[in-house]
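Why should sequence recovery work at all? Because a backbone constrains its sequence more than one might expect. Tight turns favour small or flexible residues, buried strands favour hydrophobic ones, and helices have their own preferences. The token representation captures these environments compactly. In the example below, the structure is given first.
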């Protein structure tokens, strides 16, 4: 029907002149011929479907007759004819096998094979080809079995190559059989059949398979031993043969006969070699050897054409035996291991080589990170120990931390190639020893104080910002208790601002800006308030000077002939500045008069305010006269307010006891002893102490003015001694002191930097308030919250300043429950409810 429709379509598409000349349409279907009469007027198709012996077409215009004879009748090929055809094909296959294919007509051979399949003799052809190949392979394997081992690989490779050529040429002849007979009868294609027969007949021969496998393994072992072996192409050809044989019939011949044995021998080889080499060489030499071995195996696998299914396990075995099994030993090896190399700053290249080797086995890199972490913690604890026993001052401690950070930062960036996990371990290691107590925060604050006093002298604003960003801020980030640093920093900032010791206002503001960028505006709001107070105080002093100039001058004939004292007052906001509840001391009358004058002036301009005078801070310049007439020596002494009060008493009496001085000045006992000893030091002996030794033992110890004091300087600065030098009996019981002479005592009870690592009391008190405020703020928003969720949220919100422990937060929750800010849920005691 399809062919009839095609003929009808072609006829309809013909021209009208052609249609007028055509009377019959002849259609041949299979071996039969049918005619369709178009003689009727309608030119319709009348399928008569009658068999005709011949059809005559008449050219209507020229009256010429054309006779078309029918096709020859179909004749089935008998078995005898099929056998004859196969005999000729069999001889041709022999000629192909014998390399005489140039004498053959492949067109005729293809036609013969085609006819055999067409006439239903495909079984004869397929079985004949199979038998012919089998007989040829039997002759081949007989010769190969007698070949010596020295040339067996070469002969097998040559035989395999010739067999492939033969099979491919036979496939070209039997192409029609592959397209029709093979899929219909579910037989192997000719090429796969040839490879299957080669595997069964040749490869699996007892004299071939075991010998070839052994020769392949021996050749690879010889290469590993450094011996010059035969051309790798022979090995590649034989291995390629195994791969193709396995792929041809989905057998595991390659995996079964070579891969498993090869991987096993490889594992054993590297297990023994790694143990032997490591026992006789350093870790660095072993790393070089291991790297070379890995590259050799990779190159060999590519040269031999090993499949990915073998390359992967091969690399895993090598990395396991060479790296993973000895990772811990390579790290801990004495004098040459990774941990030992970390002690030497010049071993960056060796460290990098070891990391590059270990990174092939990701789990083994943990040993390197652990060694780095242990090294940092050990060095850090050594710095802390030096600082504890007084072998290093706080700035030296911070400089040691900065040197460690630069050194191990180079290790992470160069040896670890800036690996994120190594950077994290380094940060955690620094945080571990820096946050053991409050010592690091105190030392960092003192170091910053040193920089802002003298360290940045002559530096530009850009250089200051760079130094802060590169050295101070990274260490600051390591601190969990940033509020401790803030308290110490505020203390030293107050001393610098009040004493005019800052190297520049730009440096101070740059530091505050860096802290603000790290912790937010709330962290630095009080620090910025301190700067604002100093600016307002400068304006107030200028206004006060103008006010005094406008007052009428006192005549020299006035009764009171004492010259007025000039005072400079800094008016500070109590909430911004660190302070202590220290009662004011008794000031000399002339100083008290000046204070009263200023108070009157200030309170007239700022009504409603209250001035509280902090006499434990501040400084004074007094003129002292030494020697005897007429050889008087005058010096300007730069002293603290307490020292000024003490020295002014000796204008009236040449000798005073400790008890008398205390009653006259009302100075706290600890500070009084400290300031008296500062005035009795050998270098600045303004007073003479009656008792021997450095200590002041009792209230009866007397002091006299030293009129014989001498100094080459006109202006003499009297520094303060630390508390530990002031009195053994009072050692550590009062506020910490400093040796820099910036005023009396510490600020807010923090001490002058020697805290012993303990958390300062004021900081701990601030933490209580912050945690409680955070709890109330969270519960007010949530109304009800589980215990664990509340602790997690409080920790998250306060982590910018410090990290509270769960126990500390729990105590604050209990305190709020007692004060009826919170209550427990009736059905679950671990759930809290906010009480409005």
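From this structural description, the recovered sequence reads:
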């Amino acid at each position: 029907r399809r062919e009839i429709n095609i003929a009808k379509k072609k006829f309809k598409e013909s021209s009208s002149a052609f249609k007028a000349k055509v009377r019959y349409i002849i259609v041949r279907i299979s071996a039969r011929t049918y005619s369709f009469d178009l003689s009727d007027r309608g030119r319709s198709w009348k399928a008569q479907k009658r068999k005709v012996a011949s059809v005559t077409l008449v050219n209507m215009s020229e009256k010429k007759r054309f006779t078309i004879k029918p096709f020859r009748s179909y004749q089935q090929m008998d078995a005898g004819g099929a056998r004859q055809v196969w005999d000729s094909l069999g001889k041709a296959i022999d000629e192909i096998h014998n390399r005489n294919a140039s004498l053959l007509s492949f067109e005729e051979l293809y036609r013969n094979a085609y006819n055999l399949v067409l006439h239903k003799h495909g079984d004869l052809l397929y079985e004949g080809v199979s038998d012919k190949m089998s007989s040829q392979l039997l002759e081949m394997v007989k010769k190969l079995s007698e070949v010596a081992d020295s040339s067996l690989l070469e002969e097998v490779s040559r035989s395999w190559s010739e067999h492939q050529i033969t099979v491919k040429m036979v496939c070209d002849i039997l192409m029609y059989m592959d397209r029709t007979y093979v899929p219909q009868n579910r037989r192997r294609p000719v090429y796969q059949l040839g490879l299957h027969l080669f595997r069964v007949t040749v490869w699996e021969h007892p004299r071939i398979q075991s010998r070839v496998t052994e020769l392949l393994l021996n050749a690879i072992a010889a290469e590993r031993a450094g011996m010059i072996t035969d051309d790798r192409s022979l090995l590649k050809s034989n291995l390629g043969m195994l791969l193709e044989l396995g792929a041809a019939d989905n057998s595991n011949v390659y995996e079964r006969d070579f891969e498993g044995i090869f991987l096993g021998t490889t594992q054993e080889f590297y297990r023994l070699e790694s143990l032997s080499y490591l026992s006789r060489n350093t870790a660095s030499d072993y790393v070089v050897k291991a790297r070379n071995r890995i590259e050799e195996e990779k190159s060999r696998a590519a040269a031999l054409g090993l499949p990915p299914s073998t390359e992967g396990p091969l690399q895993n075995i090598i990395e396991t035996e060479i790296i993973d099994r000895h990772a811990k030993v390579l790290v801990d090896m004495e004098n040459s291991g990774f941990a030992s190399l970390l002690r030497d700053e010049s071993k960056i290249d060796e460290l990098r080589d070891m990391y590059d080797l270990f990174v092939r086995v990701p789990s083994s890199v943990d040993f390197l990170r652990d060694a780095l972490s242990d090294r940092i913690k050990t060095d850090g604890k050594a710095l802390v120990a030096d600082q504890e026993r007084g072998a290093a001052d706080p700035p030296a401690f911070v400089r040691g931390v900065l040197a460690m950070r630069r050194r191990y930062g180079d290790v992470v960036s160069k040896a670890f190639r800036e690996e994120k996990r190594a950077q994290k371990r380094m940060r955690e290691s620094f945080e571990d020893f820096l946050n053991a107590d409050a010592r690091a925060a105190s030392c960092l604050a003192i170091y910053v104080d040193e920089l802002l006093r003298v360290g940045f002298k002559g530096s530009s604003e850009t250089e200051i910002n760079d130094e802060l960003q590169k050295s101070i801020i990274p260490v600051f980030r390591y601190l969990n208790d940033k509020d401790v640093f803030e308290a110490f920093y505020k203390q030293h900032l107050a001393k610098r601002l009040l004493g005019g010791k800052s190297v520049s206002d730009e440096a101070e503001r740059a530091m505050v800006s860096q802290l603000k960028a790290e912790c937010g505006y709330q962290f630095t709001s009080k620090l910025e308030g301190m700067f604002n107070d100093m600016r307002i105080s400068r304006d107030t002093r200028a206004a006060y000077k103008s006010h005094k100039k406008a007052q009428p001058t006192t005549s020299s004939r006035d009764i009171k002939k004492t010259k007025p004292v000039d005072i400079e007052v800094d008016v500070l906001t109590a909430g911004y500045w660190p302070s202590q509840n220290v009662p004011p001391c008794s000031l000399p009358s002339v100083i008290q008069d000046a204070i009263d004058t200023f108070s009157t002036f200030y309170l007239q301009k700022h009504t409603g305010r209250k001035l509280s005078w902090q006499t434990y801070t501040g400084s004074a310049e007094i003129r002292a006269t030494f020697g005897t007439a007429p050889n008087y020596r005058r010096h300007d002494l730069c002293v603290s307010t307490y020292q000024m009060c003490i020295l002014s008493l000796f204008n009236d009496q040449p000798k005073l006891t400790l008890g008398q001085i205390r009653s006259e000045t009302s100075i706290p006992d600890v500070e009084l002893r400290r300031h008296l000893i500062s005035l009795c030091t050998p270098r600045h002996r303004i007073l003479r102490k009656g008792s021997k030794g450095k200590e002041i033992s009792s209230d009866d110890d007397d002091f006299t003015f030293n009129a014989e004091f001498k100094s080459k300087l006109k202006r003499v600065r009297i520094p303060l001694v630390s508390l530990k030098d002031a009195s053994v009996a009072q050692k550590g019981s009062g506020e910490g002191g400093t040796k820099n002479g910036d005023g009396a005592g510490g600020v807010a009870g923090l001490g002058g930097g020697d805290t012993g690592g303990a958390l300062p009391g004021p900081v701990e008190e601030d933490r209580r308030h912050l945690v409680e405020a955070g709890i109330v703020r969270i519960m007010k928003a949530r109304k009800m919250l589980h215990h664990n969720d509340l602790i997690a949220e409080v920790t998250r919100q306060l982590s910018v300043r410090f990290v509270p422990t769960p126990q500390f937060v729990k105590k604050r929750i209990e305190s709020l429950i007692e004060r009826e800010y919170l209550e427990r849920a009736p059905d679950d005691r671990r759930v809290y409810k906010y009480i409005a």
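A few observations help interpret the result. The longest helix spans residues 521-550.
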